[in-house]
Specification:
The protein has 2 domains: about 50 residues, Homeodomain-like (Arc Repressor Mutant, subunit A), CATH 1.10.10; about 150 residues, Tetracycline Repressor, domain 2, CATH 1.10.357.10. It is mainly alpha-helical and about 210 residues long. The longest helix has 24 residues. The chain is built from 10 helices and no strands. It is globular and about 60 Å long.
Length: about 210
């Protein structure tokens, strides 16, 4: 075990991330987190108080970082379409950096947000709110058509979370040669960027619909 003086909350959070991603909140065990972090369980309770508080802090940290990145992009001098592209790339990068997040978030969605308290929900809400700021700038300049900001956010974030969380399944599909499941992250990001730009384009410059689209 590490000496208490060397124990950092960050190391405990890193160990907890792996445990929660693999087993979800209900299946996660503090003793496994302690072994992975090389601390005793008492140090986890000293820093975080409970498994629930540890889980929530992990989510809040990710939400705060995502919101901060989006706010910085929204406040930048780049054009609205460039800001949109940057926002999508930034969220993908963050989710890849925090590789536990897509799996944890999918579990939380499936469980109806059962483990989210008010403070965690507030941290979560800051992410679509920051994305809405970015959209509003594009709407004001006529670059984006008016849309419901939450609808646009869900349209953007859902495929990102699913794409990253499904990586193990896509690897199995590739090994089994059932379909061509190779989808590099750069290709995926460009696809989402293009899709969102097309969706948000003003009606005057959007592609005309064919009879098949009617």
């Amino acid at each position: 075990m590490a000496r208490p003086a060397t124990v950092t909350p960050e190391r405990i959070l890193a160990a907890a991330a792996t445990e929660f991603a693999a087993r979800g909140f209900a299946g996660a065990r503090v003793d496994r987190i302690a072994r992975r972090a090389r601390v005793n369980k008492a140090m986890i309770y000293y820093h975080f108080g409970s498994k629930q508080a540890l889980y929530r802090e992990l989510l809040r940290l990710t939400f705060r970082q995502a919101a901060d990145r989006l706010r910085a992009i929204a406040a930048s001098a780049v054009s609205a379409p460039a800001a949109l592209d940057a926002a999508i790339a930034a969220l993908v990068d963050l989710a890849r950096e925090r590789s536990y997040f897509p799996a944890v978030m999918l579990r939380e969605v499936a469980e109806g947000g059962a483990h989210l308290d008010g403070a965690t929900l507030a941290a979560l809400s800051a992410v679509p709110a920051a994305f809405a700021e970015l959209l509003a700038r594009g709407v004001r300049t006529g670059t984006f058509r008016p849309v419901h900001p939450l609808a646009a956010y869900v349209t953007m974030i859902a495929p990102i979370v699913f794409y990253l969380a499904s990586s193990p399944i896509r690897q199995q599909l590739r090994r089994s040669h059932l379909i061509d499941a190779a989808l590099p992250v750069e290709t995926f990001v460009r696809h989402v960027q293009h899709t969102m730009r097309q969706m948000l384009a003003p009606e005057s410059i959007r592609p005309a619909r064919s009879l098949h689209d009617a």
